[in-house]
Amino acid sequence: MPPFLLSLLLLFTISVPFSSCIAAGEVITCSGIVPMKYRNDKISIADFGGVGDGKTLNTKAFREAIYRIQHLRRRGGSLLYIPPGVYLTESFNLTSHMTLYLARGAVIKATQ
């Protein structure tokens, strides 16, 4: 197959799955699911010292926020909001009745 056609095929193969992630003026995620807007309890990772500078290790902030959500046991669940930024963290466990919501531009990066 000529290199041009191979490149075109590759570009098409990669771009089609991501075309569903784009919506002009709509709040939408790549999966097409918008999180519940009316959770009884909303918690920001910033309230627990989370810093999205791409340098600070945020494991303690994630663990403390999730621990609080787990022990509050609010009716209707809780939403953990991650503001825009790059959050470095080691592993942490999620809990039931929780929505992990990443704002546009928020990235959670794992460290070793």
UniProtKB/TrEMBL annotation:
Residues 1-23 form the signal peptide. It is found in: Secreted, Cell wall. Its main location: secreted. GO terms for molecular function: lyase activity. InterPro entries: GH28_Enzymes, Pectin_lyas_fold, Pectin_lyase_fold/virulence, RHGA/B-epi-like_pectate_lyase. This is PECTIN LYASE-RELATED. Gene3D superfamilies: Single-stranded right-handed beta-helix, Pectin lyase-like. Residues 43-91 form the Rhamnogalacturonase A/B/Epimerase-like pectate lyase domain. Keywords: Cell wall, Lyase, Secreted, Signal. Pfam families: Pect-lyase_RHGA_epim. The keyword Iron does not apply. SUPFAM superfamilies: Pectin lyase-like. It comes from the Eukaryota.
